[in-house]
Amino acid sequence: VSLKDKNGYSLLHYAVCSGNVNMLKAVWEASGMGEKSLANSEGVTLVGLAGGKGWVEGVQWLASRGAPLN
Fold first, then answer.
1. In sequence order, which residues have a C-beta less than 8 Å from that of residue 20 and are 6 or more positions away?
2. Cα–Cα distance between 9 and 1 in angstroms, integer?
């Protein structure tokens, strides 16, 4: 998960973009997710990305795992 593309997106960012909570869970668990505030090159966090897509379930799931809400 530490690998990022030219826009600063990791596999976790793409999992959030998918809108699929099962994919997000799988990638999160595989990553060991020590960095809960992971942001892309524009500073958008995982929760910010999910919220920007209107994905309430994703925001709630990430928040329940300790991801910052800002």
1. none
2. 9
Residue type, position 47, single letter: V
2 touches 35 (CB < 8 A): no
- Predicted TM-score of the model (pTM): 0.82
- H, E, C per residue of the chain: CCCCCCCCCCHHHHHHHHCCHHHHHHHHHHHCCCCCCCECCCCCEHHHHHHHCCCHHHHHHHHHCCCCCC
Q: pLDDT tens string for the chain (70 positions)?
A: 568 899 888 889 999 999 999 999 999 888 876 566 678 889 889 999 999 999 999 999 999 988 888 7
